Amino acid sequence: MTTSNICILITIIAYLLLVIWIGVVFSKKNKTTDDFYLGGRKLGPFVTAMSAEASDMSSWLLMGLPGVAYLTGVADAFWTAAGLAIGTYINWLIVAKRLRKYTVACSNSTTLPVFFSNRYRDDKRILSVIAAVVIIIFFVPYTASGFAACGKLFASLFGIDYLAAMIISAVVIVGYTALGGFLAASTSDFLQSIIMTIAIFVVLGYGVVTAGGVDQVLANANSLAGYFSLTSIHDAVSGAAGDYGIMNIFSMLAWGLGYFGMPHVLLRFMAIEDPQKLKMSRRIASVWVVISLGVAIAIGIVGNAMSKGGVIPVLDDSETIIIAIATVISKHGVLAALVAGLILAGILAATMSTADSQLLAASSSVSQNIIKEVFFKDLSEKAAMFIARISVVIISVIAVFIASDPNSSVFDIVSFAWAGFGAAFGPVVLLALFWKRSNKWGALAGMFTGGVMVFVWKFLVKPVGGIWGIYELLPAFVVAIVVNVAVSLATRAPGQDVLDEFEAVKAECKAK
Q1: Do residues 265 and 56 make contact, with C-beta atoms less than 8 angstroms apart?
Q2: Which pTM was predicted?
Q3: Domain of 286: which CATH number?
Q4: What 3-state DSSP class applies to 329?
Q5: Mean per-residue pLDDT, 277-292
Q6: Domains of the chain: total
């Protein structure tokens, strides 16, 4: 192993030990399952904002988005980023405060499935169980994709066995999550967002300098047909420009709809200590998202110029652009190798910040929404805490098994799971918060339709191509919200207590 690899390894190990220490510290603060899964609603505005966005972006920010820009140019990356930025802002603006207050009003609901059942007075807990099943279906493989990304990173850097690298990564993530729960995950996510930010700015600065400056980067981009356009896309194989039509734009903008149904993001809204500080959190989150997405796209454009200039090789896998740049940086001495280690820790951080939140959401579905609510309603807090931690471990074992194939896709799973949550939960969340006539049967029908429609569109309709080739989230979301409204209007209206609670929360949100 070279000196640079040793320095990189030292940096990454130091980072992993730090997040485990965070888990140990916060393990002492988890007295109840409410603490474990929602941190006792004690998050500050900065941690709320940055942990929400770090858990959202995952390794896609440091691998997927720069990779798309590197290979095909600005259009695809820009419109996807625009959809995410708009979705982030609107979610914080209209959902965050009302969800925080409504979940407290609804018997202090600590998970999204519990909120659904409490909101609609679903005494049989049908909604929470179905929602829990949806979370498990989409989050277990989503978590597996995170484990796989970590394994591939270590395997490619150090030449170690993929399976061993993936399992070690999973053990670290499971360790601090099972020990410290939501507070550990949120605090480590806050730390991880800082590391991610440092990583992308260092990579961008180094890349611009070594590529020959801004003018050279722009000259390279303009020399490639369709590369620097919002309505064309560059074909790296033929070198020609392809049309990027209005349907492609709407399809990419539709990514923003997913935010309304993301359990791991919505939990941060529910966990803030002071709802009045959500405005500050919104500003912090929105600014960070816009800057980080913009820098990630710029890295892809700069990376292409670096390849053309011979600074880095032409990449077979465009998603390894930051790894390639970090490898070049590491060859400039010990200090540079440590900086490269920090950059690669940023990729690891991005992956871990999503995986820990997914683990908590999936385990809460098993332990709280199925085991405790359906089978053992009188479970003691001590037993509930034990089941909560065991659920994290069991789900992780299943995710490790799924991720054991080194050829498993990472980003296809992320895209599909994002669509699944957005379509299944997004319409239910919006109508539960803003339409008092919505009822249990509408929510149930909408949730089921949205989840099924994602599969139908992805595997049956989308392959037809043409206008049908749009991202499955958009049609599934529209169909789900129409079904929710139609079924709610066709069935019995909610009881007066539900309507009074809705109006009380609405008035409270307006008053403060």
Answers
A1: yes
A2: 0.84
A3: 1.20.1730.10
A4: helix
A5: 88
A6: 1
